[in-house]
Amino acid sequence: MSHADILPALREAAPDLRGRLSANEDMAPITWFRVGGPAQVLFSPADEEDLAYFLSRAPSDLPVRVIGLGSNSLIRDGGVPGVVVRLGRGFAKVEVEEGGRLRVGAAVPDVKVARAAADAALSGLSFFRGIPGGLGGALRMNAGAYGGETKDALVSVRAVDRSGRIREVPAAELGMSYRHSEAPADWIFTEALFQGDEGDRETILAEMNAITDSRESSQPVKSRTGGSTFKNPPGGKAWQLVDQAGCRGLRIGGAQVSEMHCNFLINTGDATAHDIETLGETVRARVLETSGVALDWEIKRVGDFAAGREVEPFLGRRAA
Question: Partner of 53 at 20 to 30 A CA spacing, among 108, 129, 200, 237?
Answer without folding.
Answer: 108
